[in-house]
Known about the structure:
SDR_fam; oxidoreductase activity; 41% helix
Amino acid sequence: MENLQNQRVLIIGGSNGMGLATAQRLATQGAEVIIAGRAQARLDAALKHISGKAGAYTVDFSDEASLAQLFATLGRIDHLVITASSSAAWGSIRDIDGAALAKAFEQKALGYWRSIRAALPYLRKDGSITLLSGAASRVAIAGTAGLAAVNGAITQMGQALAKELAPIRVNVVSPGLIDTPAYDDFAPEAKQGLFDSIAKGLHVGRVGTSDEVAQAIEFVVTNGFTAGALIDIDGGAR
Ligand SMILES: NC(=O)c1ccc[n+]([C@@H]2O[C@H](COP(=O)([O-])OP(=O)(O)OC[C@H]3O[C@@H](n4cnc5c(N)ncnc54)[C@H](OP(=O)(O)O)[C@@H]3O)[C@@H](O)[C@H]2O)c1
């Protein structure tokens, strides 16, 4: 297991949900965690929940200039974790037109692509990159073809990049339904209804927590023999 003491880990998407849970875990291992996201207020609030060495920077990963500025400011990093997304491609193909799907790609898959490109000059030669995809790309569920397309792109780019960028270790973690602030916009009954209906189909009978995914991210970041892996943290969704 790699010792994270004094290792610098950048988490793009670290101000909320699974990214924040990852920051909390890695900071307790002695890492210097840098969380990045678009909203300064969310970053400030998140920092209060991280014990250890932590910093926060604003970035919009859909904007190459914003990413370039972030990395120029930070300098060297040892590990990159990308959890960010504001993608919303839920629904039938009948309701999602090409422009809506292109926007969903912009808000997730292309942001991952741009972030990796921007990070490479600054990333330790044998560091790691961890990407978050999603169970929609691993299980056939009606109404999730858009999510499947966006997350499938990440799963597949991760596999190829693991070969291309070695000895940087590239790994993909694929969450199932996880109770995070991503569902805060749902009406409470709609959210509970969604969670209950998904939970019924899972081996574990419940949806997941951010920390359960963060545990898998911690594993791939610190396990020096894990490269090109795809890890499903989905309660048995497949
Ligand atoms: N929750 C689930 O059930 C679930 C299931 C499968 C897959 N996933 C995937 O798992 C990952 C983590 O999900 P989550 O639920 O933890 O997300 P979340 O709670 O919604 O947090 C998303 C984070 O990304 C940041 N972000 C969004 N757009 C950004 C941008 N353009 N540039 C930089 N930062 C940006 C957000 O901060 P700002 O808004 O301030 O920028 C926030 O810190 C996502 O990739 C999601 O697609 C989630």
